[in-house]
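Task card 7
Instruction: Convert sequence to structure tokens.
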Amino acid sequence: MSNLWLKPALILGLSINLSAPLAAEQHDGDIQPWKQGGQIELNGTLFEADFGDLSGGAYRTDDPGYDADTALGAFGDGNWLWFQGIGSLQFWNGSAWSNSVLNGEHIQIEDALGNTSVFSADGVSNGAGVIGQFDSNGDIHEHLDMAIRNASNALGGSVGAYWITLQLFETVAESQTPLAISASYDIIFNRGLASADFEAAVSAATAPVPLPAAVWMFGSALMGWLYTGRRRQAHV
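Output:
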């Protein structure tokens, strides 16, 4: 995890950057991690987001946020919460998910230290980022700036849905050694789709993958073989 190295100047400024007041209640739609049995648990595996829900324009959002659920399990006082990007950016073209985008679109996430992670169809660069620092109660509530850009790196993106995958991990301050890690989770962003069309994209992302016909044929043959074998044993 060599990409977790942080500049000393940024480390010194962490307490200033992360001093926003924490919310007293859980926020609907936020990613709500808690720590249990040495692992990070999450309130879901897929979260929805919408570029354009901020006053800054059609290509930015800071939702979902990260709002720890300390009632289920607190984190370490002063520890840091990180995200780690996994895999590559996927695009919904109206009928199927693909890792081929129309205009070089990529999603950028700016972390609490001002570093930028980039999710593209080719993979993730600078994939680890700091979300924030837990308070004395092991709690945190932070939102990160996320934007979609085109091949020219200008704000913009083709109409459709965009899908990224991440994990969370906790460290002691700037340490590079995870204390706890979450399972992977997905964020699907709406970029200009009607609500029904976006929900169709989300449904397609969560639909079970059908097994190939050959697998079903093999399974049927195996069950037949087992049944025949049992009948033979019964007549011995």
